[in-house]
Design goal:
single chain, 892 residues, alpha+beta, Immunoglobulin-like, 16 helices, globular, binds ligand MIG
């Protein structure tokens, strides 16, 4: 077992009374913030504390050295703008307490001087407190031991009195990792703090781990680690960090959701400890103390290797408020081009042009829709990205023209490492311009990756990002066309033969920042530059599609992520659900796991089940490893082909709903895929559920993740809810936990009463073939016989929805036996001749006598219908109601 630096150093500090004291006579107050200093009683180092309130129920606490010998790293480019602050007021000031209030007095921050602690209260409820366990930790910058004057003998330098072995063990100035030596030019710089979440015993977030949805107690095990790493065949139930990190933790209890966003891009550990304590009341009278009840409390300890403490406290109070607050800071999900919500067919590798054509034709032959075929690293000339293997891909443009005619796209892989080959223009240019990350001696850092000896572009440098973005220009990227999109892999970054398969922490980036400071941002920056490149090659007109393996807070702005190298085993299918839910609630809606499992060969049943699950997840791609057998959906016998076809077709029929959900993610920060508790925040039985989830607010999906399952236990939450079988339209008799029989044909999906889902009446060969296909609305009535839903629509690929309001945003309302279609955003201008052809009303009380439809021009038409008394489903058919116009259907 590896003992990480942070564990060794910070874990020497145990919970107890903090040695930090606030100097409350140093308080200054401005419109932007409140500042004061705190001092460490032993080493006497002064830290500067800054507290501010940000619009929308967010508080920010920053702690930096008051007078560092050199500036400490502060994360840039993650916050989309400098947050708008609100003035705080001092509502109480005493020798050892300072109380700050928000203008509306909804929130109070109580700062205690000795020891230094901060408590955040909403009305009279203490929501969270900081440093209440005394774990504030801040290694101030020191001159290297050799620079020190021999006379200085104060305690702060006690560290240098440690024996060589002790120093080595603690890794103060250098650290060994196997055969690697990390030289810490600036010495120890780690920071940490504890937070107590009062009344909470359910915490979520901090992806990415191959772990459960509900975060576990770490008191007798490993902390959750946030350190982006390429871990091939990562284990299930492991807290080691894999490819991406979002340092956002959510805490939930029935009446409140809170969030902690720890903005730090260095290696980070998070310890979690839930316990029961006596109820905490801010102003405790004797009588109240007597009435104290036990209540849960969760302690969360964050430790980062470097940087400063910069933490955002998201006060909700609902989960949807948290999503908005986080998006206000880091941005919302980019609106994907519609094609990218279709099915993607990938493999390491599709060998050559003939192979691509054959696979493409296979989909048509087997009548399976798909949108994108992918090329992995072998398509390049010796792993030189932006080039083609001339033997295998002699005419990439022609191949793309072929795909274009089929209304399909191509995605190619572009990794961040650049083959160290002076004949490779990308390399020689970048070398000349000094665009590579340097090693600690100032030479270009060289590591081994796919192409052999490679250098790594320094994407933290804005000039490098601009140059990189320019590489995607059609003129520069030979053989590329506008149906080619990009996949960024290996961007943790992955460095073969590097410590933990990544870059040395003492490598040096732009502005002399060490790699340790920016490690978790490397992939974020590559995807940013790639997305920018795709936008720029279209002169700003077209939406990009970029899939990345490594990510950070804010990556949602640039595209999609996937969960990396999973294995073709049932356990990985099962864990993919909580993994995707965790990524989703951390702001990244566009996420998926390799369908089938990347490593190994799935048995047909597993593959089928994985397609059925993937069809209801945001990013839907089949992918397989080089050593895996071919896995195109038609290779597993007639019956399995049929079932997979059906799953993929269901996905395509559902696209209007899914695209609308992405629009909501884009505009309102609502996750597309949601844990049950987000939709049912008051229902405790949902808090730990991770084997099913909500897709938007209307669909409950329960993938089958057990071999040979005959039945699954489904929780249909909410006693006041009505649920309908999504395919059979039958109203479920009960809510609660039901045993639902299953066959291999499909997985259980339910529509929630009170919702309207827009669908297409049938699937086409790809999304682009489906533009004119008519719509179908599934209206599921609630206990009041009402339902609402919406549809968002635009050209599916450009930015015209933004600049020229070329979009349609419709709302469907069912009320008093009438269904209406109205505009929700009058500024939308998009027109289409597409119609609603069919409406199915689920849970309709009785057989109607006649049904009419009126369009805006006053024309009233009688509508043909059938009513199924067994299921209470009313089907209205042969409608021709324009999707872009107002209309109303009346059922009598
Ligand atoms: O370690 O490019 O996760 O999807 O097919 C293998 C080859 C490198 C890892 C990616 C995988 C991709 C593969 N890559």
């Amino acid at each position: 077992k590896i003992i990480f630096y942070l564990d060794r150093r910070q874990k020497l500090l145990h919970p107890g009374k903090s040695l930090y004291r606030a100097l409350l006579d140093s308080v200054t107050l401005s419109d932007e913030n409140v500042k004061f200093q705190i001092v460490h009683e032993e080493n006497k180092v002064l830290l500067q504390v800054e507290i501010c309130e940000i619009e929308g129920n967010i508080f920010r606490l920053k702690i930096d050295e008051a007078a560092p010998i050199r500036a400490r790293y502060k994360v840039s480019d993650v916050l989309i703008k400098e947050p708008t602050t609100k003035r705080l007021f001092i509502s109480q000031e005493e020798a050892d307490v300072l109380v700050l209030s928000s203008i509306n007095k909804d929130y109070k921050l109580q700062v205690t001087a000795k020891p230094f602690q901060v408590e955040l209260q909403s009305k009279d409820e203490t929501v969270l407190s900081m440093n209440s366990n005394g774990l504030l930790y801040f290694e101030h910058l020191q001159p290297p031991p050799s620079d020190r004057k021999p006379t200085t003998k104060n305690k702060e330098e006690a560290a240098s009195d440690l024996s060589k072995e002790e120093q080595d063990y603690l890794g103060l100035w250098q650290e060994k990792f196997g055969s690697f030596l990390d030289i810490k030019a600036h010495g120890p710089t780690s920071v940490g703090m504890d937070f107590s979440l009062h009344g909470f015993d359910h915490v979520y977030g901090i992806p990415q781990h191959t772990e459960a949805l509900l975060l576990k107690n770490t008191s007798d095990g490993d902390a959750y680690r946030l350190y982006n790493l390429d871990i091939f065949g990562h284990k299930i139930h492991d807290k080691i960090g894999i490819y991406g990190s979002v340092p956002l933790l959510l805490a939930h209890k029935p009446n409140r959701t809170s969030g902690i966003f720890w903005l730090n891009s260095s290696e980070t550990l998070v310890d979690i400890n839930t316990k029961a304590v006596a109820e905490h009341t801010p102003s405790r009278s004797a009588a109240e103390t007597a009435k104290q009840r036990a209540m849960p409390l969760t302690d969360v300890r964050w430790m980062s290797e470097s940087g400063i403490i910069d933490v955002f406290l998201l006060m909700g109070p609902t989960a949807f408020d948290i999503f908005k607050q986080f998006a206000q800071l880091t941005g919302t999900q980019a609106l994907p081009p519609l094609f990218s919500l279709g099915y993607h067919q990938c493999r390491w590798n599709y060998e050559n042009e003939q192979d691509v054509k054959a696979v493409d034709a296979g989909f048509d032959e087997h009548d399976i829709p798909y949108d994108v075929i992918w090329l992995d690293i072998e398509h390049t000339d010796g792993k030189r990205y932006f080039t083609w293997d001339k033997k295998k891909f002699q005419n990439p443009r022609k191949m793309q023209e072929h795909l274009r005619k089929k209304k399909r796209k191509l995605v190619v892989i572009i990794d961040p490492h650049i083959k160290a080959d002076p004949m490779y223009t990308l390399y020689s240019q970048a070398k000349d311009k000094g665009y590579f990350v340097k090693d600690r001696n100032g030479k270009d850092f060289e590591g081994i990756c796919w192409p052999g000896s490679s250098c790594y572009l320094d994407f933290t440098n804005p000039e490098v990002r601009k140059w990189y973005a320019d590489q995607f220009a059609f003129k520069t990227y030979k053989g590329s066309t506008n149906i080619l999109f990009v996949w960024n892999d290996m961007n943790e970054p992955s460095v073969f033969k590097g410590a933990e398969l990544t870059m040395q922490k003492d490598a040096v980036h732009y502005n002399n920042w060490e790699h340790r400071e920016v490690h978790n941002l490397y992939g974020f920056y590559q995807q940013m530059a790639t997305a920018e490149g795709l936008i720029r090659r279209s002169s700003g007109k077209e939406r990009p599609f970029v899939l990345t393996r490594s990510f950070f807070a804010g990556s949602q702005k640039y595209g999609a992520v996937w969960t990396g190298d999973n294995t073709a085993e049932w356990g990985y299918l099962k864990i993919s659900i909580p993994m995707l839910l965790t990524i989703s609630i951390a702001g990244i809606s566009f996420c998926g796991a390799d369908v089938g499992g990347f490593i190994g060969d799935p048995e047909p049943e597993l593959l089928v089940r994985w397609y059925q699950a993937g069809a209801y997840q945001p990013f839907f791609r089949g992918h397989s490893n080089m050593e895996s057998k071919r896995r195109e959906p038609w290779l597993f016998g007639k019956k399995n082909t049929q079932i997979i076809r059906e799953a993929i077709r269901e996905r395509y029929v559902l696209l209007p709903y899914l695209y609308t959900l992405f629009y909501r993610a884009h505009t309102a920060a609502e996750p597309v895929m949601r844990p049950l508790w987000v939709e049912f925040p008051g229902k405790i039985e949902t808090f730990g559920v991770e084997n099913e989830y909500m897709l938007g607010n209307a669909l409950l999906v329960h993938p089958v993740t057990e071999q040979e399952a005959k039945a699954v236990s489904v929780l249909l939450p909410g006693s006041e809810e009505i649920w309908y079988d999504f395919r059979k339209f039958k109203r479920m008799e009960d809510s609660g936990t039901l045993k639902i029989p299953v066959t291999l044909e499909n997985i259980p999906v339910f529509q929630r009463g009170g919702t309207v889902i827009p669908l297409k009446t049938t699937a086409g060969k790809s999304t682009e073939w489906m533009t004119d296909i008519s719509y179908e609305l599934h209206v599921a009535l609630d206990t009041e016989a009402c339902a609402i839903g919406e549809l968002y629509l635009d050209d599916g690929h450009s930015f015209q929805y933004l600049h020229k309001t070329q979009f349609l945003y419709r709302k469907f309302t069912f009320h008093r036996n009438s269904l209406s279609s109205r505009c929700t955003d009058e500024s939308g201008q998009y027109h289409t001749a597409c119609v609603v052809e069919r409406v199915i009303v689920l849970g309709f009380g009785q057989q109607p006598t006649f049904v009419t439809a009126c369009s805006k021009d006053g024309k009233e038409l009688e509508v043909a219908f059938t009513y199924d008394t067994k299921t209470s489903a009313l089907m209205l058919e042969n409608l021709a109601l324009r999707i872009d116009a107002d209309w109303e259907i009346c059922i009598n």
